[in-house]
């Protein structure tokens, strides 16, 4: 969680409401703006068992009566057509977006169970890659809040790796909801739509790395970018429409769309801290549309997504290219 993102906005909102928030990030120094507000910050790399154990020890010492809310908010993105996916990059993304979330949930579950069995009203809070809230208010069930995104219900062209990781996380969340209910713990999913954050600016296309976090070691080559970098690889079947596909992969057209992180955080916090939080919270621009899309025939919603991602234009270019060259010749790489 870093300043400017939805995690930081939610941390600030819960803190301002009087809750004790623990905000985490791999580089805790970047959380200084939150620390300056009085929010407790600590380092956490969810891919590192040692880092997770250190965070658990820290929170355990600070929140002796347990944990009220755990927010799993960390995520990286990766844009690429399925035909050109780097399996190494895809596995790396799943390690963060799925298995890292599971590891943190398992590690902090004892603190949530402790809170569930504690009858006092003195509450603590914690948050991953984001935050969490607690306070001296009415007694509430401990809660695991998983950020599964509207991407978990939308098969967006060129975003299949990210969206499938969110779909996997959503399925894990739904199963977890039933599994921890006997212990008095809630599970809430955040199906977030458009919010103006830095996630698009930090994807692999705009940052030029495999992990989508701006810290990948794989740089883009100048003329023949590797398969895992921010461009289509040389020899891609989408070569005739390279410029259109890479623009769609960059999601530049969506970068300035959405509500502000602060508005999103206010709306989400109000629901999380209500007496009976919904199992799924749909917030952000077009979140309601994404929900409606789950009720529509697939062909109808896919037509909308094709236009949104310019796949209709890609299809036209590819068809024209295939009609204009012999079948035994490969596509020219523009």
From TrEMBL:
Pfam families from the xrefs? adh_short
Is Transferase included in the keywords of this UniProt record? no
Superkingdom classification of source: Eukaryota
Record has Oxidoreductase as a keyword = yes
Keyword entries, A-Z = Oxidoreductase
- What family does the Swiss-Prot or TrEMBL record give for this protein? Belongs to the short-chain dehydrogenases/reductases (SDR) family.
Protein's name according to its UniProt entry: NAD(P)-binding protein
Which species does this protein come from?
A: Apiospora hydei
């Amino acid at each position: 969680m870093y300043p400017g993102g939805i995690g930081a906005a939610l941390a600030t909102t819960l803190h301002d409401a009087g809750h004790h928030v623990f905000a985490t990030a791999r580089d805790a120094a970047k959380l200084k703006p939150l620390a300056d507000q009085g929010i407790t910050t600590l380092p956490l790399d969810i891919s590192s068992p040692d880092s997770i154990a250190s965070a658990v020890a820290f929170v355990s010492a600070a929140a002796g009566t347990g944990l009220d809310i755990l927010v799993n908010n960390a995520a990286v993105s990766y844009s690429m057509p399925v035909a050109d996916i780097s399996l190494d990059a895809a596995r790396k993304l799943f390690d963060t977006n799925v298995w890292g979330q599971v590891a943190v949930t398992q590690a902090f579950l004892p603190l949530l169970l402790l809170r569930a069995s504690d009858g006092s009203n003195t509450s603590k809070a914690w948050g991953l890659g984001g935050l969490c809230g607690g306070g001296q208010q009415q007694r509430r069930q401990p809660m695991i809040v998983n950020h599964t995104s509207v991407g978990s219900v939308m098969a967006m062209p060129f975003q299949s790796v990210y969206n499938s990781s969110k779909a996997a996380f959503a399925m894990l969340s739904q199963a977890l909801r039933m599994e921890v209910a006997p212990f008095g713990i809630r599970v809430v999913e955040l199906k977030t739509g458009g919010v103006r954050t830095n996630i698009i600016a930090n994807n692999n296309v705009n940052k030029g790395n495999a992990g989508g976090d701006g810290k990948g070691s794989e740089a883009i080559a100048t003329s023949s970018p590797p398969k895992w970098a921010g461009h289509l690889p040389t020899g891609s079947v989408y070569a005739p429409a390279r410029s259109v596909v890479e623009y769609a992969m960059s999601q530049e057209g969506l970068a300035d769309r959405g509500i502000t992180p602060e508005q999103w955080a206010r709306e989400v916090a109000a629901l999380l801290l209500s007496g009976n939080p919904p199992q799924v919270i749909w917030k952000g621009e077009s979140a309601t549309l994404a929900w409606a899309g789950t009720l529509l025939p697939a062909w109808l919603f896919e037509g909308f997504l094709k236009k949104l991602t310019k796949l209709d234009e890609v299809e036209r270019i590819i068809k024209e290219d295939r009609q204009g060259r012999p079948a035994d010749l490969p596509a020219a790489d523009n």
